Amino acid sequence: MKNTVTLNDRTFKVMIPAEEIDRAVSAVAEQINRDYADKQTPLFLGVLNGSFMFMSDLMKKIDFNCELSFVKLASYEGTCSTGEVSCLIGLNNEIRGRHVIVVEDIVDTGRSIAHMLEELKKHNAASVEVCTLFFKPASYSQPYPIRYRAMEIGNEFIVGYGLDYDQLGRNLKDVYVVTE
Ligand code: IMP
Ligand code: MG
Predict the structure, then answer these.
(1) Which pTM value belongs to this model?
(2) Residue with the nearest Cα to atom 10 of ligand 1?
(3) What is the rounded CA–CA span in Å between residue 38 and residue 96?
(4) Active-site residue identified among 108, 164, 166, 174
(5) Closest ligand 1 atom, CA of 108?
(6) DSSP string of 84-104?
(7) How far apart are CA 58 and CA 53, in angstroms?
(8) pLDDT tens digits for range 58-78
């Protein structure tokens, strides 16, 4: 593991090693396995691009029959929220009557996930829950409960394990935090 990485103009230092992420993913998978054991073929819906690595590791720890798909939604440029959310792309699955688990890399202010949940409402799922790798409780300002949170962090900006800074850093297996 490298202690620091430089992505464009910013330097990041290691914050959460891969082993710790793995333990958090296992713990959240256990919760989901317990809660969905008796549900009919749940659908995991990953939000691209950030959730791809988390989705992959999470799915390997899920022990019931399930389906998986991805949708896309973008709200960020650089380290600051633009406050804009674009629409949902790729929702081809029949959602009606399904138990849907939305898989996110990170829930920050919650604007993206709120938009996603509003869109999903139109499709009459049997249930919709959110599973996020990272949650920023001090920043979150939406009424929707975020049921599964693998890890909670402060308001710091992080990269790695799917999360990017200007599209860079998604490939890192550890999570890094920006240094001022
Ligand atoms: P929200 O709409 O403010 O909750 O932001 C959600 C999106 O912003 C996430 O899906 C990420 O793409 C991005 N984001 C928020 N915080 C971070 C961070 O610390 N690092 C990288 N991306 C972030
Ligand atoms: Mg994202």
Answers:
(1) 0.93
(2) 106
(3) 18
(4) 108
(5) 4
(6) -----B---S--TT-EEEEEE
(7) 8
(8) 999 999 999 999 998 755 444
